[in-house]
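Memo to structure team: turn this sequence into C-alpha cells by end of day. - J.P.
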Amino acid sequence: MLLKRNSLLLVSGALLALSAPALAETKFDGVYVGVIGSVQLHNSRNAVTEGTTAFLGLPDTVAPESLRLDNNDGWRGGAVAGWNGSSGSLVYGLEADVSFGANRAGAAFSGAAIPDLAPNGLTTSASRRIGTQGSLRARLGTTVGENVLLYGTGGVALADVRGTAGVVVNGAPTVAWSGERSQGRFGWTIGAGTEFKLTDGVSLRAEYLYTDLGRQSVLATGNSGVRAISALNGVDYQVGLPTAGGAARVGIIARF
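Reply from structure team:
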C-alpha cells in the first residue's frame, strides 16, 4: 500500500513538472557563429623616445621626444563564435573572435645638424603593424522587446604586433641604426553593441570595441659604420610604440 502511494505521488509530481511552464528563453539564447567586418576608427599615435640615455640627451631639434604616427585606418574581416544564456530579459554569455588584416602606421623626423658628426642632421623613424587579432570576452545585456539585444562586452585581447625603429645620418646612409621586434602581445578590450533579429536564426550586429595591447619597445642599434665612430658608441635609439585603438564592427550571426 505504501509503495503504491509513493508511486502515485511520483507520477503526480512528474505530471505537474511537465505541465508547468518552462523558463522563458530569449531569441538570442544558445550557440552561435558569424562573420564580422571592422574598420579602425582611431589609434594611439604618440611613439615615445625611450632611450638610450645618450640618445635622450640629444637636443629636441636633433632627435624627437616622440614621433606622431600617421593615423592609418584599416579594414579587417574575421569570424566570431559564442554562447548566450538568459534570465528573464537579462542575457549573458561568452564570445571569442579572430580578425585578419593589418593596421599600419609610421612616422619620421628630420633633425638639425650635429657639427662634425652629422652636418645634414639625422632622420629618425618608427613604424607599427598590428596583424591578426583576437579576443575572448564576456557579454552582458538586455533584450528590448523580442528582437533587439543591447549589450556590453569586455575581456582579454591578443594580436601579432611588429614594430621597427631606425636612424640614418643624412648624406651618409652607411652610418645607420636599425631594429625590429615581432611578438604576440596580450591586453584588454571593452565595448558595446546591439543585435537585431532578422529571422529566428539570423541576426545583424553592430558594435564598437576599444583594445589596448600596451606599448611595444623597439631598440635600434648602430651598424658597423656607427661603431667605428667612438663619439657615437652607446647612442642607440629606442622607441615605445602604442597599440591602442577603437574599431567599429558589423556582423551577421547565425544561431543553432
